[in-house]
Amino acid sequence: MFAIIPDIHADYQRLILTLEGLGFRREQGSLGQEVWAHPDRWQAVFLGDFIDGGSENARVLDTVRAMVEAGQARAIMGNHELNALLFHTPSQGADASGDGWLRERNDANKKQHQTFLDEFPANASSDVAPPRDAHTREVLRWFMTLPLYIDLGPFRVVHAQWDPVAVAAVGARRPDGLLASQDLPEVANCAEGFGASADLLLKGMEIPLPLGETFIDFHEKPRDQMRVKWWADGGRSYRNMALSVPKPDVLPDTPVPELEDLPAFGTSEKPVFVGHYKMRGHPEVDAPHAACLDFPDTPCAYVWRPGDTRIAPERLRIF
Ligand SMILES: [Mn+2]
Predict the structure, then answer these.
(1) What is the CATH number of the domain that holds 311?
(2) CA 6 to CA 78: how far, in whole Å?
(3) pTM of the model
């Protein structure tokens, strides 16, 4: 039995609510540490994005790490862990912004990462070197142990988009799905090849709308690009493929040219679970072969039972 758990974002209460709701309990580990385990030996599968947002990054990470180390959980990397790695890594001349770091230290990037920085200090921006703080160094090392995707047999997990070509490109170099530190500059400059593939798995595809078309997003901001529901069944129009668009009816009902060459992710594919997309409203799953579980307003998880082959609404648990 697997319990698939989406983005926690440093919200310890959400993590505990989810684990308790699923029936996990606190136990003493072999070294006296606290470990959450399930009486029926369920394994948790975390979809990444453990950090940023909430204020308890360290507590969330300690809890998840203890579960992974005790064999009670698997975990993949989210775009926030990737961003953290890039934020704290000197670029050695490889960055576009030229500020010395693989992720530019502008106000927006600092703000997004601030609660993590409060607990895991960064070097001063001018001190371009590996983190001086031992806890920061250590937790970044753990992020590097998180694979970009896992195939668990009957289903697969990735943070944002299961693109078979991108998975193959990452797997060709890194069969275990783990990034190596020498990959980070390529992932930071994600224009093509390996770096673009890794970036796509963790952030998903965005496509430009036809010239002149825009929509108003959930933060009331006009946008001329949209996220893509890459697993959508049926026509491949802007309207049908839109994700995180409040009123998809405003989008053109014409085919998306960028998707013409992309093989469809059809309903017969082995199921995939993702987080990432900050879905609005009450949690739901609406396709047999892919589900986004990231509903920030309501903690949820999906229980995969032995013998299951498709994603079914009755397996979704809401807390
Ligand atoms: Mn997220």
Answers:
(1) 3.60.21.10
(2) 10
(3) 0.96
